[in-house]
């Protein structure tokens, strides 16, 4: 019986579609913050700098998706909270 279940699981795994990554979206990034950083304060700072906020991630990791110009990207990427 165990062998049958294992064989069934392998068959299902091979039948599953493989997800491919899409083309990257220009000027779009996922920002992951350190655990001790206040997410809402950091998001406010990025918005004030001109970032366009997308999804916010609070459960698996602390971060957000954002669209940034190259100038704002340079500013954000040098912050110590990342």
UniProtKB/TrEMBL annotation:
Signal peptide per UniProt: 1-15
Origin: domain of life: Eukaryota
Keywords, in A-Z order: Signal
Protein name per its UniProtKB record: Inhibitor I9 domain-containing protein
InterPro entries attached to this UniProt entry: S8pro/Inhibitor_I9_sf
